[in-house]
Write a structure and sequence with these properties.
The chain is an alpha+beta fold. It has six helices and twelve strands. Helix content is about 30%, strand content about 45%.
Amino acid sequence: MQPNIFVEVLQNSCSLIEKINARDMRNLRLLYKEDAVVEIKGFSQFVGVEQIQRFWTALVSSLNSHIAYRDVKIDCLDDDVVSLTATLTADGHSFIAVELNQLWVNSHARWLISKSDMLLQAGVLNASDSFLDFIQTFSVSLQNWLNGQDVSEENWLRLTNAYSDEMGIVLVDGQKFSGVEIRERVKKLSACDPDLVLEVSQIEVLTMSDSLCVVSFLESRRVKDESSFSDFRSTLAFAKKSPEGWSWRHVQQTQEKSG
């Protein structure tokens, strides 16, 4: 590998970590190609700089410690493509080590990330009772709102509190909404489906601190007393805790199966 290539990629990679730690999401996106892909192995993909920016914003918003690289290895695949592997850590935090594999490409004399794979390790993490209560209560509240069983102001307040203004959501069909937009969408769907049944299962907490949770779960939607149709949505989500309780910061539906 040419020494200047190694130095430039390493410098840009260190710049990425600096911007993450500084919460400088605006300039962090400049280190990715416009069509870059960040993949959380086994869970989700974030395609394009807009989704990638939302991903990092949601992930680091509540971290109290700095993220760092260790075990960095850089390999030159050719003069314009470099592979970087490392372990991403946050010392003193319950955020567990993440295996990272990045593909950097030379784009108009600038080294940018075109692909980044991340493998989260969840083995030692435990969910708090308050978060599990939140996700189950949210599911029941949404179901009761959509099927008309509970369209009270109290139930709407529970849903409103769960959809933070800073939230971003990507539906399984690719539609994107902010927290304000999804609230308006859900409000209009009040009592739209009287036979709807929502169920949440396979909840796996990937990482958790006192105020941030990264979780995956399976949401099934079916018609009451009818087993011939069901809709399954695999979701990766970020939730943040405030004095008012938990709320969603980013939700990405990643898979849909019908049966």
